[in-house]
């Protein structure tokens, strides 16, 4: 009886340690990617008057990274851009530093202050297809 209790206790402890280790690994991976992305577009934080929330200034090239999400080896970025025809080159600037960490990178492009609306364009990167741009408004 006591041997069973010890085995169960050791098993539970090992499972909890494995879960904690996985959580630590996932957090380390995401922090590295976020550091790489924050270096790529050289921007400074501003604060909007109404909501007092942080907002990134435009880069010299006329675009800003608004949001970023990552899960299951996929990275999703949202970008506001003055000139949406530059979507593919902007996506390349954002994706190239982190391509080794992801199987797929999706970059959604919105016009300036297009929050709450649907994106105008999407650029998808995968190793097999490269960069594929889709105009979402013409469909």
The parts where pLDDT drops under 50 for at least 5 residues are 39-55
State the end-to-end distance: 67 Å
* Rg from alpha-carbon coordinates: 20 Å
Could you name the CATH class of the domain at 40-135? Alpha Beta
Helix content: 25-40%
Protein model, in words:
This protein is 34% helix and 31% strand. It is α+β, with helices and mostly antiparallel strands. It has a domain at 40-135: 2-Layer Sandwich (GMP Synthetase, Chain A, domain 3). The protein has a five-stranded mixed sheet, covered by helices on one side. The longest helix is centred in the N-terminal third of the chain and has 38 residues, at 2-39. The termini are far apart.
Topology:
Layout: H1 2-39, E1 45-47, E2 54-56, E3 63-71, E4 74-81, H2 87-95, E5 104-111, E6 121-126, E7 130-135
Parallel strand pairs: 4-5
Antiparallel strand pairs: 1-2, 3-4, 5-6, 6-7
Keywords, separated by commas or semicolons:
single chain, 139 residues, alpha+beta, GMP Synthetase, Chain A, domain 3, two-stranded antiparallel sheet, 2 helices, elongated
Short overview:
This protein has helices at 2-39, 87-95, and strands at residues 45-47, 54-56, 63-71, 74-81, 104-111, 121-126, 130-135.
